[in-house]
Amino acid sequence: MNPTEYTLLEKLPLGPANELVQTVTTATYIPGLFRLIIGIAGVLAVVRIIFGGIKYMSTDAFSGKNEAKGVIENALWGLLLAMAAWLIVYTINPGLVNFNLNIPVQEIATSTLGGGGGVGTGCQGNCPFSYVNSSGVTVRYRNCSSCSNANSFGLSIKNQIVNGTQAQMNTDLGNKLKAMRDTSGNPSFQVTETWPPTVNHASQAQYDGTSVDVSLLNPTASSIATFANNAKAKGLRVEYEVATEVKRQAYISAGLPFGVTIIVVPYISGEHFSVYMN
């Protein structure tokens, strides 16, 4: 099985010949990072030695020459200490520095897969209702107390019927989303996940109708910020979910405010808001 790969935000000289790389595994990242640190320590030691030499030659005072000698000695000791730490451990037992860092790709249990690629922990605790979705995955859920027909709020609902059941959501949540829809300047949106859930989620609020997923029809940094601020004003808590760190950084670079929570969820089928009662 191939080792798990990680994509760095910036290229670093971690390759076998210190070439710049951006995709690494633990087996290449940790040894490469160690070589990089030793290299930086060597460069800094040389800089300090040069600084001490210049200081030694540029002063006639006895105290100044002693101070310059101290700078050179400290630089040499620091470099020797960094190298000796590795050499001592390697001399005692080479196996102590030869870790098996090839971490295999982590398998995801198929029982947690939702139709559309979503991955979640599933309903926890007392979950008396269940059905098998279109992907052959069992979705369990709880009773939707204090819920109303999702269509009664005049919202755009993606899935009108789920497992033969009319889509529903918490009444207070639906009224607040309706108020947001009617707020001047609020971006257009569609409710893409209601109750019953169509896939297994990580959030337990998805299983009793107190949380829904909302997709903006034209997602931009500005529209995401507007929706998040309007939701906060209505007493709702929102998280914007994207599939990659690259997408998250793109929104931040485009001006998404720091106060807007944006998280990376690799297995979602499309970016969206998760909207919670609090």
Question: Which descriptors apply to this entry?
Answer:
278 residues; alpha+beta; Muramoyl-pentapeptide Carboxypeptidase, domain 2; 5 helices; 35% helix; 20% strand; elongated
Descriptive overview:
The protein has 278 residues and is α+β, with helices and mostly antiparallel strands. It folds into 2 domains: 6-97, no CATH class; 110-276, 2-Layer Sandwich (Muramoyl-pentapeptide Carboxypeptidase, domain 2), CATH 3.30.1380. 35% of the residues lie in helices and 20% in strands. The protein has 5 helices and 13 strands. It has helices at 26-57, 62-92, 171-181, 221-233, 245-253, and strands at residues 6-13, 20-24, 129-132, 138-141, 147-149, 161-162, 165-166, 168-170, 189-193, 211-216, 237-242, 262-264, 272-276. α1 runs antiparallel to α2 (62-92). It is elongated.
Query: Which structural category fits the helices and strands?
Result: alpha+beta
Low-pLDDT segments: 99-118
Per CATH, the class of the largest domain reads Alpha Beta
How is the CATH topology of the largest domain named? Muramoyl-pentapeptide Carboxypeptidase, domain 2
Biggest sheet, open or closed, and with what strands and sense? 5 strands, mixed
Number of domains: 2
Global morphology: elongated
